[in-house]
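Hello, quick one for you while I still have it in my head. A protein chain has come my way and I'm curious about its shape. I'm sending you its amino acid sequence along with the backbone structure tokens. I'd be grateful if you could look everything over and explain what you see. Here's the protein in full, and shout if anything looks odd to you:
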Amino acid sequence: MKKRIALVLYYNKYNKYSFNALIGALEQDKLVDVLEVFFIAKRYELIDRLGEIISTHDQVVLAISFFTTQLWEINEFIKLIRQRFANKILIIAGGPHPTGDPKGTLKMGVDVVVLGEGEETFIELMQKINNGEPFLNIKGIGILKDDKEYLFTGKRIKIDLNKYAPFPVIYRKKGPIEITRGCPHACSFCQTSHIFGTLPRHRNIESIIKYVKMMKEEGLGHIRFVTPNAFSYGSLDGKTLNLRKLEELLSKVKNIIPPEGKIFLGSFPSEVRPEHVNEETIGLLLKYASNDNIVIGAQSGSQKILDRCNRAHTIEDIRSAVTLTVKSGLKAYVDFIFGLPGEDKEDIKQTIYLMEHLAKIGAKIHTHSFIPLPTTAFAMNPVHRIDKELLKAINILTAKGKSFGTWEAQEKIAKKVSRYLRTNELV
């Protein structure tokens, strides 16, 4: 006897945290009783298994979440699926790229795009699929009508994080706990504010503690948080600190996890803004957290470029943040983006100087190349090869063990992304 609905997730390392939130939300709906969810990480394994899944289920839904840098891989993936299974599978796509480029995503062969936050939209979608009903009254989706005209059904109200689990409980997929969503800064190169809004929303401490206890019961004592800015927890505007609330969170988590448990804050998969690194925030890390490093978003050594990017911090903020971090005994990993729009020789010179200065006082430089992303202020800006003097400086820092990163691979994909955003052609 066939089962009702199969929900197949392309659950790879780049999107599993997004799917954790999505399935965590879906579990709270009675629909989960008629679903069978498949978490498949490898592309070719997924394609191989789809035939069997189709034969044992009335309806098969494939969910894909991806970044713009994955566009070509995902395009080929969808082509293979359509060639082998035609329209026997309903493909739903969400995440940063589909949100920023819904029309292009649909033209790749996707049936429905979920724009922005997916929890409530996805629940409604799966309900409609289960009931055999049309989707047009669901807010937050994009589709191509029969005449191939694009239709967006309208924005949804932002969700309350406390309403949903941060990861699947029934399916036992634990991971970092998302504690804050939304960023007030809307940096010109970043999609976060466009996807989640500029008003921060925090998961309350009671909710966080609930899931920390669940993890402890399963023998998981290492707690990581997902947040656009680790020190902004509890802040009403995301700009001013709420140290009382941040310490309350850390102290309560610390009291729950086992003695060998660890809290990681301000390190992967999150970072901190340089103006929020001070003696008080560093003190909280040293008192409660176990990470030996923090990731500081600097991005440029030119104040002109920082202002153009809408970063809302100064070069001196960066210097101070790194100095305090290193002095405290923590490692400072400092993000820089090369090739930001508007850079001239003087801006590059200032960036080289700052990187060398920070490396000299003990920081490690995390190197990135500018990649234009849909919906951002810099989406249509051209990309350029890295400056020769900057390349020389990076090579010297890398040889000394003072820098790391994949800027070269990013530079290559940036050219393809830029061409796509300008032409809407995948080549």
Observations:
- The mean pLDDT is 95.
